[in-house]
Amino acid sequence: MRAASVGDYRELARRRLPKVLFEYIDGGSYAEVTLGRNVADLEAIALRQRVMKDMTELDMSTEVFGQPFSMPVGLAPVGMAGMYARRGEVQAARAAAAAGVPFCLSTVGVCTVEEVTRAAPAPWFQLYMLKDRGYMKSLLERAKAAGSPVLVFTVDLPTPGARYRDVRSGFSGLSGLPQFLNQTKDGLAHPGWLWDVYLNGRPHTLGSVADAVQGSKRVTDFLSWMAKNFDRSVTWADLDWVRQIWDGPIVVKGVLDVEDARAARAAGADGLVVSNHGGRQLDGVRSSISALPRIADAVGGEMELFLDGGIRSGLDVLKALSLGARACFVGRAWAWALGAGGEAAVARMLQTLRAELAVAMILTGCTSIRQAGPELLDRD
Amino acid sequence: MRAASVGDYRELARRRLPKVLFEYIDGGSYAEVTLGRNVADLEAIALRQRVMKDMTELDMSTEVFGQPFSMPVGLAPVGMAGMYARRGEVQAARAAAAAGVPFCLSTVGVCTVEEVTRAAPAPWFQLYMLKDRGYMKSLLERAKAAGSPVLVFTVDLPTPGARYRDVRSGFSGLSGLPQFLNQTKDGLAHPGWLWDVYLNGRPHTLGSVADAVQGSKRVTDFLSWMAKNFDRSVTWADLDWVRQIWDGPIVVKGVLDVEDARAARAAGADGLVVSNHGGRQLDGVRSSISALPRIADAVGGEMELFLDGGIRSGLDVLKALSLGARACFVGRAWAWALGAGGEAAVARMLQTLRAELAVAMILTGCTSIRQAGPELLDRD
Amino acid sequence: MRAASVGDYRELARRRLPKVLFEYIDGGSYAEVTLGRNVADLEAIALRQRVMKDMTELDMSTEVFGQPFSMPVGLAPVGMAGMYARRGEVQAARAAAAAGVPFCLSTVGVCTVEEVTRAAPAPWFQLYMLKDRGYMKSLLERAKAAGSPVLVFTVDLPTPGARYRDVRSGFSGLSGLPQFLNQTKDGLAHPGWLWDVYLNGRPHTLGSVADAVQGSKRVTDFLSWMAKNFDRSVTWADLDWVRQIWDGPIVVKGVLDVEDARAARAAGADGLVVSNHGGRQLDGVRSSISALPRIADAVGGEMELFLDGGIRSGLDVLKALSLGARACFVGRAWAWALGAGGEAAVARMLQTLRAELAVAMILTGCTSIRQAGPELLDRD
Amino acid sequence: MRAASVGDYRELARRRLPKVLFEYIDGGSYAEVTLGRNVADLEAIALRQRVMKDMTELDMSTEVFGQPFSMPVGLAPVGMAGMYARRGEVQAARAAAAAGVPFCLSTVGVCTVEEVTRAAPAPWFQLYMLKDRGYMKSLLERAKAAGSPVLVFTVDLPTPGARYRDVRSGFSGLSGLPQFLNQTKDGLAHPGWLWDVYLNGRPHTLGSVADAVQGSKRVTDFLSWMAKNFDRSVTWADLDWVRQIWDGPIVVKGVLDVEDARAARAAGADGLVVSNHGGRQLDGVRSSISALPRIADAVGGEMELFLDGGIRSGLDVLKALSLGARACFVGRAWAWALGAGGEAAVARMLQTLRAELAVAMILTGCTSIRQAGPELLDRD
Ligand SMILES: Cc1cc2nc3c(=O)[nH]c(=O)nc-3n(C[C@H](O)[C@H](O)[C@H](O)COP(=O)(O)O)c2cc1C
Ligand SMILES: Cc1cc2nc3c(=O)[nH]c(=O)nc-3n(C[C@H](O)[C@H](O)[C@H](O)COP(=O)(O)O)c2cc1C
Ligand SMILES: Cc1cc2nc3c(=O)[nH]c(=O)nc-3n(C[C@H](O)[C@H](O)[C@H](O)COP(=O)(O)O)c2cc1C
Ligand SMILES: Cc1cc2nc3c(=O)[nH]c(=O)nc-3n(C[C@H](O)[C@H](O)[C@H](O)COP(=O)(O)O)c2cc1C
Fold first, then answer.
1. Could you say which residues of chain D have pLDDT below 50?
2. Measured between alpha carbons, how far is A210 from A226 in angstroms, rounded to an integer?
3. Where does FMN bind (chains A, B, C, D) (predicted)?
4. In Å, what is the CA distance from A52 to each residue of A363, C10, D264?
5. Is the Cβ of C5 closer than 8 Å to some Cβ of chain B?
6. Helix (H) / strand (E) containing B336
7. How far apart are CA A114 and CA A120, in angstroms?
8. Listed residue (C229, C161, C183, C176) closest to C21, CA to CA
9. Could you tell me the sign of the dihedral formed by the alpha carbons of B293, B295, B298, B302, in that order?
10. What's the pLDDT at A157?
11. What residues of B are in contact with residue C378 (Cβ under 8 Å)?
12. Per-residue pLDDT tens digits for A195-238
């Protein structure tokens, strides 16, 4: 199958990855209502077809925090990408760099920030608030030392949501994977992955967490260490503590509510990712795209606004930008592509988004993406 | 299959129970429109994601009629539970007690209130209005003697609704079950159930009704006795008669309409279960969740309000509480779990609801369930 | 399969009848949008659950044009019923009489009005406006002579709509049936029908039309005679012509529009069937139930209003009456039942509607069907 | 299968054509949201059933630019029709002429305007704006010389949209077809087509483009020449250039927006096709039918308005005319019919549309199609 769309990479990943991993990427929490809303609410928005405008020049570049983007898209932090393809974070970071878009490394990446930085420009760095502040401090300092330009501080995971698919598939985090694969035929049924990742993609530790789990030689309990370390006592005041260690831009990820957006601004955040964690945390909350306009109204002038959740095409990107986002992040889109075919597939997927965005700009008469606004949308 | 959600217990029950019993639990009346609305209307409500609130302390306990609930959930009266697992009412009552939530015994339970009380705290007691008032009086006195703290008086069954699935499956109530199982292979196809319930779970009488059907040694015609005894002449005035025998709190179950809610209050009821009998009575009526806010407006300050119908997760529980319920009752959720795996499964199902409620509280920033209100919901 | 609902008779008819006949009954015109709307719009209406009303007395009888109905339901005119069961019109008329509801004989029935009247009370008589007025006159006089109490004058068939299913199934009206059955295995595949109807249910002529097609001994071209005789020049003025021959009540069938309803009143019609011919004529028009309230507003005080289209249960009947109908007619419901099991099945189907209507009345607190009104519905 | 409806021709084409061609005709761009909206929005419109009007006279003829139409329908420009049936454009043009409706030849037709004109009245001529203006000029002059009465200037293709189905099916335009068929079994699996079109329908060049691709003897790269030649710098000013060469009526095809409609008028266009290219260009834009009323309001008095997109029946035609179109064009409807059965099938399909339109007129009481207006629609 030739992949024509982001959805096709999903199908290819479904074939290549052990079920337990595919379900982990694909699923959302509980009944997956919010996951569905993310996609459906984007689909329901109508672009406004315009014709006979001179579209010779088409500028889809933008700039955020002084960093140029060749198009208004970035790779969202996705945990354990090193399990979807050999040293997955490195591969994705390379594809992103080649495409001129930022890659954001997850706290629970398989590759460390140092490993990624040896192969590609220093990634944006995503951080969860953990109970062990000493450890957090060292993580921040490592990212700073590696040259990460932006800190993405994820706030919608004070506690992990429950994803039914993971319970059903028997997934219990990275640590349980080896037994799991031994016990089942899931691995054997996917020899491409087995060879590429399982045999040749080691070590399968969570790079940033490895040090914290002292004395552990065996691949155990990284995720359970994480689960215990999510800190639900965090408040906006704690952002001060982060600020003292991190002097670069801080983007708060996981805000859906106007009051929270204002609070983030007041607490000194430089940007926001309007997000519900791709429908993986509290199921039943609104779609991120539906939250965007009101947040843009409230703080759009004062902060950089990003959106993630449900972006499946360049058309979706244009919709989000028309409603107030500076750029979009994609999560599953690149995780599927990575699982489907590593760096090359991520690169092709990004080309697809770019081509789609170009068509969307041409047929809405938008010559410069920085000018995208509500006039590109068709409302009754 | 590991059960991750309430829906998974449904699937497990489907496998374990004779079809005739599973359909009885699962079905609704007529075209099952109201059954669908109960679930769909809950699903359509959006929770409001909030972040960066100190959620260290989380209090999901509540108190009703002086009785503590460890969480705002109770087991709704479900008839014939002793057919889904051996002495099913006892098993469910034990699981409820261990979880710190109330169990409500149905008028048409297999186990008597005395049998349940020997194994667990005295259950809430559910009563249908029957024509034989002398018999009703004796039932009420037995419940009182057993120590039942609350009377649940079900008013939405002046006549039984028609459930097409039961007609199709050949179900004609408990009395017909033995022949049924002999004639078909339904029982043999479910050996786990056959051993547990059919052979070792006797007697299969309706505990509370058995005495009324005098002279009957054989397992016959309990339900047809019931069917003939539903009393459609009952009015609010008859509540006085009940009140004379029962001096504890009376909760009227089966109210959807504001006028009826006011009438119940005027007639001296202490609480209401906003309910359409789980979509098993008059098909085509509104969902119970859609009826809740207006009833809460009208009588919420003066009565304890409960909701049942369509509750399938802890997220649903939070939605109902945000709209004015003190607590929710679950019907099919526990009946499925009981059919799937007896007491242990009911206990696990309750843990699941609790864990889901916790996530929902943490991500809506609700530290105390007693404070839940409309500010936890996202409305446009 | 035991039939629990109207939908179950549909399934039984599907099994028993040659496909060509089943599709003829079941289908609607074009994309069947209106057929779908008839059912969906009824389903979307919410009944209002009321409790604790003394429902001992339940009166579902009504009276129209001095004729008592045991319940507010009648059998709509359905063409060629004698092909669904042996002498089908007679069987249905008997079932209707036993149930105390009117049966309306179609212009294109297999049995004549005289044959029906020998076996049951004289039926209501349905008439299409035909070009051959002399023939029409004789039909009206035969109906009058037979004692038909009411004339149903169908106005929504100035030209036949196209039903794609009939084209696909190869159905070309009654006349083509014999060849059709010879050529295909459709008849052989349905031996019950073959014996009952095809071999023993003769003659297979259209009773009322037979005389008009003079000289025809063979079963040919009745429907094509009909098709050529539909008269699209008819206007309200022509009702005068009918009135001169028919002095009993005239019910105009096939009105959806308020202006047409007013015109019918002005032209002297005594009643209306709000109808779109069961979605068999102009696809894309509104559902009959959605047309009812405005027509009831406009002429409800001055004419008897009936509704047909999409009635599948006693619950639907109550909804229609709450919105202004005096009674409902059912078309497919009885055609399916007749095809499924002849008179006995029609009788059981009517019992089902009655039982459903009783439950609906009891749980909406409606003691007398003549009092049904909008207060039985739940609107936001 | 006898084709009863436009949808049936689709099914027949699916069986007869190589998959790669069927998918090309059938598909839309991206997620096919707009393709779906075109059909769904037409379906949602309700016609207004009227009865008892004298419908003896029924006039469905109209006139545009002095040219009589026997009914308000035309065949939209569809590329490569000569691949769906032998010399497909000629066959379709003949069927259109016989039916008294216009045929519009696509820029990327297999047959040239001269070939079509030898067999049928000169077709309307559709033009894309190409970079090679000299070549465009010669095309316009050939069409003029051939006698084409109307120029259809398509403006919604400044760049080709991406159709995922074509990527997946491996379709890469006409040029790649031979290899494609050799490599796969797609051709062999469709012997009817293989014989009719592939072996006997040559040459398989794009008639109008052939000359431009100089020196090419082999069937190569026509479409890639086209793709490179789409000109996205075109503005309304360029219409002047066209006007200098073409002195007949110019219809601008591909306008959805009121501002664009006004600009087209100001630029001197004589007519508009309200269109989104059948959902094949920018996915996510509104349906053409939903765009029609506002464009009719803005410029309806001053320009001839046509609609295409989603027309699947004569009922749809009446809906579009009621909302302000003078006539409708059908794209897939005739492409499917052509693929299903050549000229004869296109002729039958047009008869079906005509018969459907007649029923729709009769049952909405519309005697003359030129009088169709909003009073034929039922709105709440
Ligand atoms: C498999 C997977 C793992 C993820 N891991 C993280 C993570 O470690 N940190 C984080 O902040 N977000 C994580 N996310 C959320 C993404 O950053 C992003 O918010 C989400 O995927 C956007 O929705 P989309 O997948 O519909 O594009 C993860 C998402 C997925 C699908
Ligand atoms: C199998 C079954 C039996 C029931 N039996 C009774 C009963 O005996 N008495 C009663 O008041 N309600 C009875 N109910 C209704 C429940 O108490 C409750 O109102 C309903 O199940 C709530 O909807 P849910 O199943 O969607 O949670 C029964 C429900 C089910 C599913
Ligand atoms: C098989 C069939 C034949 C019909 N024949 C006639 C007829 O001869 N005359 C008539 O006025 N209506 C006829 N109708 C329409 C019915 O009288 C009635 O309007 C319609 O069936 C009501 O919709 P329902 O089928 O959803 O109940 C027919 C309907 C069906 C289904
Ligand atoms: C297979 C196919 C080829 C087409 N080729 C052209 C074309 O060459 N030029 C053009 O202006 N429009 C073209 N169109 C668009 C049609 O002219 C028309 O706008 C569209 O098909 C209308 O939608 P419908 O298919 O739902 O009727 C094409 C459409 C299809 C389906």
1. 217-220
2. 11
3. 77-79, 106, 126, 154, 253, 275, 308-312, 331-332
4. 9, 56, 9
5. yes
6. helix B332-364
7. 10
8. C176
9. negative
10. 93
11. 256-257, 285-286
12. 999 889 998 888 888 877 766 544 446 767 777 888 999 999 99
Of B325, A173, C285, A1, the residue nearest D165 (C-alpha): A1
CB proximity A370 to D under 8 Å: no
pLDDT band for position A169 (50/70/90)?
A: confident
Q: Does the structural domain A6-369 have CATH classification 3.20.20.70? A: yes
Q: What is the DSSP letter of D47?
A: B
Interface residue A98 vs chain D (CB under 8 A): no
Tell if the CB–CB gap between C52 and B263 is shorter than 8 Å.
Answer: yes
Return the CA Rg of chain A.
Answer: 20
Q: How far apart are CA A259 and CA A241, in angstroms?
A: 21
- Which H or E element spans position D252? strand D250-255
DSSP codes of every residue in B139-159: HHHHHHHHT---EEEE-S-SS
Contacts of B355 in chain A (CB under 8 A): 162
Ligand 2 center–CA A143 separation, angstroms: 56
Which residues of chain B have a CB within 8 Å of the CB of C356? Answer: 30, 162
pLDDT value, residue D226: 78
CA pair distance C182, C173, nearest whole angstrom: 15
Compute how many other C-beta atoms are within 10 angstroms of the C-beta atom of residue D267: 18
Centroid of ligand 1 to alpha carbon of A78 (angstroms): 5
**A–D: how many Cβ contacts below 8 A?**
102
The residues spanned by each domain of chain B are: 6-369
CA distance D329 to D340: 19
Question: Is C276's C-beta closer than 6 angstroms to any atom of ligand 3?
Answer: no
Site of tokens 């078309």: C331
Query: Helix (H, G, I), strand (E, B), or coil: what is residue D272?
Result: strand
Cβ-count burial of C356 within 10 angstroms (0-12 exposed, 13-18 middle, 19+ buried)?
buried
Helix (H) / strand (E) containing D362: helix D332-364
B/e letters for C109-130, b = 16+ CB within 10 Å, e = fewer, are bbbbbebbbeebbbbbbbbbbb
Interface test with D, best of C37, C166, C256 (most D CBs within 10 A): C256
Reduced to 3 states, what is the DSSP secondary structure of residue B181? helix
pLDDT in tens, C365-376: 999 999 999 999
Q: What angle do CA B357, B363, B369 make, to 5 degrees?
A: 45
What 3-state DSSP class applies to C298? helix
The CA B278 to ligand 4 mean position distance, Å, reads 51
Q: CA-based Rg of chain C, rounded to a whole angstrom?
A: 20
What residues have CB less than 8 Å from C326, skipping those under 6 apart? C62, C64, C72, C271, C304, C305, C306
Give catalytic residue positions of C. Answer: 277
Q: Which of C6, C277, C329 to mutate to test the pocket of ligand 3 (most atoms within 8 A of CB)?
A: C277
- Give me the mean pLDDT over the B229-257 stretch: 96
pLDDT at B261 over 70: yes
Contact C162 D51 (CB under 8 A): no
Label each residue of chain A as H, E or C. Answer: CCCCCHHHHHHHHHHHCCHHHHHHHHCCCCCCHHHHHHHHHHHHCCECCCCCCCCCCCECCEEECCEEECCCEEECCCCCHHHCCCCHHHHHHHHHHHHCCCEEECCCCCCCHHHHHHHCCCCEEEEECECCHHHHHHHHHHHHHHCCCCEEEECCCCCCCCCHHHHHHCCCCHHHHHHHHHHCCCCCCCHHHHHHHHHCCCCCCCHHHHCCCCCCCCCCCHHHHHHHHECCCCCCCHHHHHHHHCCCCEEEEEECCHHHHHHHHHCCCCEEEECCHHHCCCCCECCHHHHHHHHHHHHCCCCEEEEECCCCCHHHHHHHHHCCCCEEEECHHHHHHHHHHHHHHHHHHHHHHHHHHHHHHHHHCCCEHHHCCHHHECCC
